[in-house]
Design a protein that fits this description.
The complex is a heterodimer of chains A (125) and B (488).
Chain A lengths: L2 H22 L3 H22 L21 H6 L4 H32 L13
Helix pairs in contact in A: 1-2, 2-4
Chain B lengths: L5 H16 L2 H28 L2 E3 L12 E3 L1 H28 L5 H20 L3 H19 L5 H32 L4 H10 L2 H19 L8 H7 L2 H24 L11 H17 L4 H20 L4 H32 L15 H15 L5 H16 L1 H30 L3 H5 L12 H16 L4 H15 L3
Antiparallel strand pairs in B: 1-2
Helix pairs in contact in B: 1-2, 1-4, 2-3, 2-4, 2-19, 3-4, 3-10, 3-13, 3-18, 3-19, 4-5, 4-10, 5-6, 5-10, 6-7, 6-8, 6-9, 8-10, 9-10, 9-12, 10-12, 10-13, 11-12, 11-16, 12-13, 12-16, 13-14, 13-15, 13-18, 13-19, 14-16, 14-18, 15-16
Classes of the chains: A mainly alpha (125), B mainly alpha (488).
C-alpha cells in the first residue's frame, strides 16, 4: 500500500471521527474538539493531494534537473507546494474559528451555567 | 480609475485601523467614510464593466501565478448594492448600536462590520476557488461575531448553532477544493471547470456536491437553512438587515454562478429549483405561524431566498434577470423591515407582535415606512415587489413544463400567506390600543426612529417605492448582470 493511500484513508477516517464527534455530542466543548479533528483530517487530505511518492522538497537550485529535460524533470520529483500553502491558510482559519467558538462557549457558560446543548433552549436542531 | 481591489483593501485596512484606535467616535467616522468610499469605487466601475469583464492584476503578478480576480457587470452591480447597504446600515448603527443597543464594544462592531464588507466584495471579484474559500470564511466568522454582539443567551446560542453548521459546510467545501485541485492542478475556476468536464462523472459529482453543501449553508438553501431563523432574529437588527439584505443573496449568487459554470459537468443544477420551492413553502408556512416579529421576518427571508433561487435556476436569461430584480427588491424591503423592527423592540422592549398594538400612534412615520416595505414585499402594485414578482412568474411561464407551473402555483400560494401575516402586523400597528385608552393613560409621547436611522430606513423604502418606476434604468444594469451570471 502506498503512502498516499494510507494518508487518504487516515484523512477520511479523521474527518468521519470529527463529524461524528460534532454531531453526536451534547457537550459544546466536545463539539468544538470534533470540529478540530475533522479540520485536521481535511488538512492531511490537502497535503496528500500534493504528495509525490519519493518526492523532494520543492526548492529550485542552480543546476536542478539535467541539461536535456531542464526544469520539467526537476519539478516531477518535487512534491507540489501549492496544497501545502493552502494548508497553512486553512490551519490559520481553523485556529480563528476555534478561538471564536471557544469564546462563544465561554460566554454561553457565563450566561447559562451549562455547556450541555440539550439544556440550552435555542440549540435544538 | 482606482483598481477594484480597493473594494477589498479599503474596508480591510479601515477595520484594523478602527481596532487600533479603539475609539468610538473614530470608529464611526472611519466606518462611514470607508463605506462611502466603497460606494464611489463600485459606482465608477459600474459603467465600464457593463460592456464586459475586466481582469484585475494585483501587485503586477498576472495569472497563472497571481490570484485570478475580475470585475464584470454582476460583480460591479452587486458590489454597488453591498456598498450602499453597508453605508446605510453604518448610518443606522450610529443611533441604534450607540444609543440603544450599547453594551458591547462599539469600535469592534464597526471593525467586524467592515470585515464582513471586505469579504463580500472579495467573493464578488474572485475567480480563484481557494481565494473564494478564504473570503467565504472571513464572511462567516464576521457573521458569527456580529450575531453574538448582543451577548445575551439567545444571541450566543444562535451564533453557536450558526457556527457549527457554517463550519461543517466550510469543511466540506475545503475537501471539495482539494478534490478540484487534484483533478486540475490549479485553483483558477476556468482550469477547474475544464478539468471537471474531463474527469469521471462520479468524481465531478462528488466535488460539486461537497462544494454545494458548503456554500448552501450560507446561502440558506433548504435543507441546510435551519440556523437562519435563530441567527437573523437574535442578531442586532442592523446585522439582521445586513444578513437578510445581502449576505445570503450574495452566497446564493455565487453558488448559482459556480454550479452553472465550474461545476456544470456534474449537472446538479437540476435539483436547485426543487430545493428552492421547498424552501419557499417551508419558510412562508413557518413565518405564518410566528408570533415574534423578527422571527417572522427571518422565516420570510427563507421563503424569499427560495423565490430568488427558483428564478435564478430557471436557466433562461429572463429568469436570471427576474431573480436579480427580485433580489434587489428584497434587499430594499427586508432591510427596511428589519431596521424598523429593531426600533420597535428598542422602544417597547418587547419582541412579540401583539405588544405593538397601536404603536402607529406613537411612531407614525416609522409605521408607515414599515407598511410600505411590507406591501412591496408581498407584491402589491405599484410597488417594486409587484414588478419583480411578476417578472419571476412571467419568466417561469415562458419556460413552461411541470416544474415551472408548479413553481408558479407555489409562489402564488406563498404570496397569499405573506399577505396574511404581513398585513396582520400592519393591522396591529395601526389599530387603536383600546385597553390602554380605557386605562386612561395620557397619550404617549412620540418615539420615532432616531434621525440617522430614519434617514437610512427611508432610503431603503425609497428603493422599493420607486423601483418599479425606474425599472428600465435598472435593466441597463440587470440585463448585463444576468448574462454575466452564466459565464465565469
Amino acid at each position: 500500500m502506498s503512502i498516499s493511500a494510507i494518508l487518504y484513508a487516515v484523512s477520511f477516517l479523521l474527518i468521519a471521527i470529527g463529524l461524528y464527534g460534532l454531531l453526536a455530542n451534547r457537550n459544546l466543548v466536545r463539539m468544538v474538539i470534533g470540529l478540530n479533528i475533522a479540520d485536521l483530517g481535511v488538512n492531511i487530505f490537502l497535503v496528500t493531494v500534493g504528495y509525490v511518492e519519493g518526492g523532494i522538497a520543492p526548492i529550485f537550485t542552480r543546476g536542478a534537473g539535467d541539461a536535456a529535460t531542464g526544469v520539467a524533470s526537476a519539478t516531477a520529483a518535487m512534491v507540489d507546494p501549492v496544497p501545502q500553502a493552502l494548508v497553512l491558510t486553512a490551519i490559520v482559519i481553523g485556529f480563528g474559528i476555534t478561538a471564536v467558538a471557544l469564546t462563544l462557549v465561554m460566554r454561553i457558560y457565563a450566561a447559562t451555567g451549562t455547556i450541555d446543548s440539550s439544556r440550552l433552549r435555542g440549540l435544538k436542531w | 480609475m482606482v483598481s477594484p481591489i480597493i473594494l477589498v483593501a479599503l474596508p480591510l485596512a479601515a477595520a484594523f485601523l478602527i481596532t487600533l484606535a479603539g475609539n468610538r467616535e473614530v470608529a464611526r467616522i472611519v466606518a462611514l467614510l470607508t463605506a462611502l468610499g466603497t460606494v464611489w469605487v463600485a459606482a465608477t466601475w459600474l459603467l465600464p464593466s457593463l460592456a464586459g469583464s475586466t481582469v484585475i492584476v494585483v501587485g503586477g503578478i498576472a495569472a497563472p501565478f497571481g490570484i485570478g480576480l475580475a470585475i464584470d457587470a454582476l460583480s460591479a452591480g452587486f458590489a454597488l448594492l453591498v456598498a450602499v447597504s453597508l453605508t446605510l446600515v453604518v448610518l443606522y448603527s450610529f443611533s441604534y448600536i450607540g444609543g440603544e443597543h450599547g453594551r458591547g464594544n462599539e469600535a469592534r462592531y464597526y471593525a467586524v462590520l467592515l470585515l464582513l464588507g471586505a469579504a463580500s466584495f472579495g467573493l464578488l471579484l474572485t475567480r480563484d476557488l481557494f481565494n473564494l474559500f478564504v473570503f467565504y470564511e472571513i464572511l462567516c466568522i464576521a457573521s458569527y461575531i456580529l450575531v453574538a454582539y448582543g451577548q445575551d443567551q439567545r444571541a450566543l446560542e444562535a451564533s453557536f448553532k450558526y457556527m457549527i453548521l457554517g463550519s461543517l459546510g466550510s469543511l466540506l467545501m475545503l475537501v471539495s477544493i482539494g478534490l478540484a485541485y487534484r483533478a486540475a492542478g490549479s485553483l483558477a475556476m476556468t482550469d477547474i471547470a475544464a478539468a471537471l468536464a474531463a474527469a469521471e462523472p462520479g468524481y465531478a459529482l462528488l466535488t460539486a456536491l461537497l462544494f454545494f453543501f458548503g456554500m448552501a449553508v450560507e446561502a440558506a438553501v433548504f435543507p441546510v437553512n435551519t440556523w437562519l431563523p435563530d441567527a437573523h432574529s437574535s442578531a442586532p437588527s442592523s446585522i439582521s438587515a445586513v444578513l437578510s439584505g445581502f449576505v445570503i443573496e450574495l452566497a446564493l449568487v455565487v453558488l448559482v454562478r459556480l454550479v452553472g459554470t465550474v461545476f456544470a459537468p456534474a449537472g446538479i443544477g437540476a435539483v436547485l429549483p426543487v430545493l428552492a420551492l421547498v424552501g419557499v413553502l417551508v419558510g412562508e408556512i413557518a413565518a405564518f405561524s410566528q408570533t415574534e416579529l423578527k422571527r417572522m421576518l427571518a422565516y420570510s427571508s427563507m421563503g424569499q431566498v427560495g423565490l430568488i433561487l427558483f428564478a435564478l435556476a430557471l436557466g433562461t436569461e429572463a429568469g436570471t434577470q427576474a431573480g436579480l430584480t427580485h433580489l434587489l427588491m428584497h434587499t430594499g424591503a427586508k432591510s427596511a423591515l428589519f431596521l424598523i423592527a429593531g426600533y420597535f423592540i428598542v422602544r417597547t422592549d418587547r419582541r412579540d407582535i401583539e405588544s405593538y398594538r397601536g404603536l402607529a400612534a406613537r411612531m407614525p412615520v416609522s409605521s408607515v415606512l414599515f407598511a410600505l416595505a411590507a406591501l412591496s414585499l408581498v407584491g402589491v402594485p405599484p410597488f417594486f415587489g409587484f414588478f419583480s414578482k411578476f417578472r419571476v412568474l412571467a419568466a417561469a411561464s415562458a419556460v413552461g413544463g411541470g416544474l415551472a407551473w408548479g413553481g408558479i402555483a407555489v409562489i402564488l400560494a406563498a404570496t397569499v400567506l405573506e399577505g396574511f401575516y404581513l398585513f396582520r402586523v400592519v393591522r396591529v400597528l395601526f389599530e387603536r390600543d383600546e385597553a390602554a385608552e380605557r386605562a386612561g393613560g395620557t397619550p404617549a409621547a412620540r418615539m420615532e426612529l432616531a434621525a440617522p436611522a430614519l434617514v437610512a430606513t427611508a432610503l431603503f423604502v425609497l428603493l422599493v417605492i420607486l423601483g418599479g418606476a425606474v425599472l428600465p434604468q435598472f435593466d441597463t444594469i440587470l440585463a448585463p448582470a444576468a448574462s454575466a451570471l452564466a459565464v465565469l
